[in-house]
Amino acid sequence: GYTDEQIRLLWGGNLLRVWQQVEDMALELRADS
User: Fold this and answer.
1) Integer Cα distance of 33 and 26 in angstroms
2) What span, in angstroms and rounded, lies between the C-alpha atoms of 14 and 11?
3) pTM given for the model
4) Phi, psi at residue 14, to the nearest 5°?
5) Secondary structure (DSSP) of 1-33
6) Sign of torsion, CA 1 11 17 33?
7) 9-30 pLDDT tens trace
């Protein structure tokens, strides 16, 4: 199993990665319009 700290690191990394993708998509949409 995972420790609480490992789970927090996994979630934190995933959230940051997802947020980066959202920001990239927003930039592309803004560039298109």
Assistant:
1) 11
2) 5
3) 0.52
4) -65, -45
5) ---HHHHHHHHHHHHHHHHHHHHHHHHHHHHH-
6) positive
7) 888 888 889 999 999 999 999 9
